[in-house]
């Protein structure tokens, strides 16, 4: 995506983001270690910034993802996941100490070779904002050898200091800094060579954007191509060409893929009943959704919920939410 296209899309998206930050953990790990992360529930995004060494992230239904120093992983939908060492073996003991409101986690009796900064963002308007639903499952920024990592790290420390200080307006300042950090992450993702997210690309074209926003607003509807064309104010042929150009997929194929993607996010990010999720994303029954997920991801819906048993509760006091890394 070009700089101009990214700027246009960000200008449309940013006013909709009201973000509250939670800076949670500073991790210093070595040897064999594992850190499971439960689903956060709707409206939460999680991030991990690797400042030294390397680690592996595992998410249900997806392959392992290796991160190394300079990499930042952002999970916009708060999916359950596992962060672990590259070396597998008996997991070592981890000590925990709270310092300046941040959990300091370290492996015991193992030389430190990996360090991470971890936290979360709360999208306060997520239920009313279909553009948040359009964000990809994960965003990975590779910043090794670039000044970006230091800029991101400085912003995180500034956010933490504002929350710790408790001065007048600290929460507003921290929220503005968090929004700036998130926008910087989005900007670098959108302008990267590998950032070809089909849904975001469709939002750049007025014809396809009308359809995408309508679908995201009523995913359970039994959409037809004629109804999509009516929403787009275009002929069926024009709409099909526009979708092929922007997303390399027909409108009905895009709809099917989107429904499964949203279902996977709900399964990984909430404990809503499968039948409820099936209804919300447009499947006639739990069985129909289960079969579609098995075809797409090769596993049953319940398996997409591991690791983690309960989504974290949303508290109004973001400065005290340090439940997991």
From TrEMBL:
InterPro entries recorded: AraC_lig (IPR032783), AraC_XylS_family_regulators (IPR050204), Homeodomain-like_sf (IPR009057), HTH-like (IPR037923), HTH_AraC (IPR018060)
SUPFAM superfamilies: Homeodomain-like (SSF46689), Regulatory protein AraC (SSF51215)
Region (Disordered): 300-325
Residues in coiled coil: none
Biased composition (Low complexity): 315-325
Domain HTH araC/xylS-type: 209-307
Keywords for this protein: DNA-binding, Transcription, Transcription regulation
Pfam families, per database record: Cupin_6, HTH_18
Transcription regulation recorded as keyword: yes
PANTHER family tied to this protein: ARAC FAMILY TRANSCRIPTIONAL REGULATOR, HTH-TYPE TRANSCRIPTIONAL ACTIVATOR RHAS-RELATED
Protein name (record): AraC family transcriptional regulator
UniProt source species: Bradyrhizobium zhengyangense
């Amino acid at each position: 995506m070009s700089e101009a296209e990214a700027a246009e899309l960000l200008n449309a998206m940013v006013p909709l983001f009201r973000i509250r930050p939670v800076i949670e953990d500073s991790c210093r790990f070595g040897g064999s270690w594992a850190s499971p992360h439960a689903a956060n529930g709707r409206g939460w995004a999680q991030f991990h910034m690797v400042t030294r060494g390397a680690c592996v992230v595992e998410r249900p239904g997806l392959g392992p993802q290796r991160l190394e120093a300079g990499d930042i992983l952002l999970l916009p939908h708060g999916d359950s996941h596992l962060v672990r060492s590259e070396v597998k073996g008996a997991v070592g003991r981890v000590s925990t100490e709270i310092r300046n409101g941040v959990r300091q986690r370290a492996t015991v009796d193992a030389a430190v070779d990996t360090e991470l900064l971890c936290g979360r963002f709360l999208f306060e308007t997520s239920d009313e904002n279909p553009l948040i639903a359009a964000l990809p499952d994960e965003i990975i920024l590779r910043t090794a050898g670039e000044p970006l990592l230091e800029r991101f790290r400085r912003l995180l420390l500034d956010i933490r200091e504002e929350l710790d200080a408790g001065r007048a307006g600290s929460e507003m300042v921290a929220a503005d800094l968090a929004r700036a950090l998130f926008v910087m992450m989005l900007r670098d993702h959108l302008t990267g060579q590998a950032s070809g997210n089909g849904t975001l690309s469709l939002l750049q074209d007025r014809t396809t954007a009308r359809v995408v926003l309508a679908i995201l607003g009523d995913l359970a509807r039994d959409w037809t191509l004629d109804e999509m064309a009516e929403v787009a104010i275009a002929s069926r042929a024009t709409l099909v060409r526009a979708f092929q150009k922007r997303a390399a997929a027909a409108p009905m194929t895009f709809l099917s893929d989107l429904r499964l993607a949203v279902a996977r996010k709900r399964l990984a990010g909430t404990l809503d009943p499968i039948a409820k999720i099936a209804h919300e994303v447009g499947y006639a029954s739990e069985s129909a959704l289960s079969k579609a997920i098995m075809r797409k991801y090769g596993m049953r819906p319940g398996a997409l919920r591991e690791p983690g048993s309960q989504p974290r509760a949303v508290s109004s006091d973001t400065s005290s939410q340090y439940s997991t890394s």
